């Protein structure tokens, strides 16, 4: 639901970057989205096209890189992959794990001209 | 439209006025993007085919919410320096947030300065309900937006001018998904869940319950008429967030309200105590 404002934020950051890095057109945008970031890829693509219309990002390709969710298990002393926030450790069943990755929403890089 | 701050397409209004940019109190800090440019020369990026195009790669490596987070930090500094206890109230629509708030305000305003920021997509109904209690309130209408962001709240604070040492309630848009991601600069997030909603809400909307410091379980006067397992609900919330505090109450009958008011009192004391520590330090 908030994909629209995320796309607006992406546009603002790209506009800032355009000023400091001197480019006038964006061809590709790479975003890293954690699998627990509550971002729907389809909604993101739909809103991306809509929001970028009439801007330097219009027509750019959106590449979404899904970052898998991992959490630190204190019992196993390692990061384990999880699919939900409340998942226990898949190795030992320990609960209350601390999320290490999976909730990020980042602009990684741009292909510009 | 406010391009500099990144607010919506002119749809956000603060109590009937379109958001105006000339009254800004924010520092639009110079954004430093690092932005190492990887020049791929004549070739298209990733294609390494010289002569094909002029495109190059720019590494941005920035959090999409970094702007919101900067505004949130500005708000937080303002709240801390004015010893304002700012609380972000979150829930789904119809959980009884506004009723709970109006009931609480009647008692709170005898002791404290209180102010309210109301967030809804449309109408100023909620701010009017709050003002009827004698407490000052400002309404933010987000238009298409499904959550408040730190920038809107900064403007609302500017317009509302909450007093020093007051309690500021920020009633977010009724929505258990999006508001979880947007820091407003609050001291605490309070999620309100009503027993008419189902005890698995914390599992269905884990981000919200993970982000919250306190869960208020509202409408407990209706429990005799419902098939709602309070213990199961609390267990679900703690599965997501082992440290979450829980208070069961009914805004309608007043049962449990004292516990909530006590929690507010404690939070105010904590704020003052940390202030004294920093003053002594």
Write the layout of secondary structure elements.
The complex is a heterodimer of chains A (113) and B (281).
Chain A: H1 3-21, E1 26-34, H2 41-52, E2 61-67, E3 70-73, E4 78-81, E5 98-101, E6 105-112
Parallel strand pairs in A: 1-2
Antiparallel strand pairs in A: 1-6, 3-4, 3-5
Helix pairs in contact in A: 1-2
Chain B: E1 13-14, E2 17-18, E3 37-38, E4 56-63, H1 66-81, E5 85-91, H2 97-108, E6 114-120, H3 125-131, E7 136-141, H4 150-160, E8 167-171, E9 188-194, H5 201-204, H6 206-211, E10 214-218, H7 230-240, E11 245-248, H8 257-280
Parallel strand pairs in B: 5-8, 5-9, 6-7, 6-8, 9-10, 10-11
Antiparallel strand pairs in B: 1-2, 1-7, 3-4
Describe the protein:
The complex is a heterodimer of chains A (113) and B (281). Chain A has one domain (3-112): hypothetical protein PF0899 fold (2-Layer Sandwich), CATH 3.30.2320.80. Helix content of chain A is 27%, strand content 32%. Chain A has 2 helices and 6 strands, in the order αβαβββββ. Chain A has helices spanning 3-21, 41-52; strands spanning 26-34, 61-67, 70-73, 78-81, 98-101, 105-112. In chain A, the strands form 2 sheets. Chain A has a 3-stranded mixed sheet, covered by helices on one side. The longest helix of chain A has 19 residues, at 3-21. The radius of gyration of chain A is 17 Å and the shape is elongated. Chain B is α/β, with parallel strands linked by helices. Chain B has a single domain (67-280), classed as P-loop containing nucleotide triphosphate hydrolases (Rossmann fold, 3-Layer(aba) Sandwich). In chain B, 32% of the residues lie in helices and 20% in strands. Chain B is built from 8 helices and 11 strands. Chain B has helices spanning 66-81, 97-108, 125-131, 150-160, 201-204, 206-211, 230-240, 257-280, and strands spanning 13-14, 17-18, 37-38, 56-63, 85-91, 114-120, 136-141, 167-171, 188-194, 214-218, 245-248. Chain B has a 9-stranded mixed sheet, sandwiched between helices. In chain B, strands 3-4 form a two-stranded antiparallel ribbon. The model of chain B is unreliable at 20-51 (pLDDT under 50).
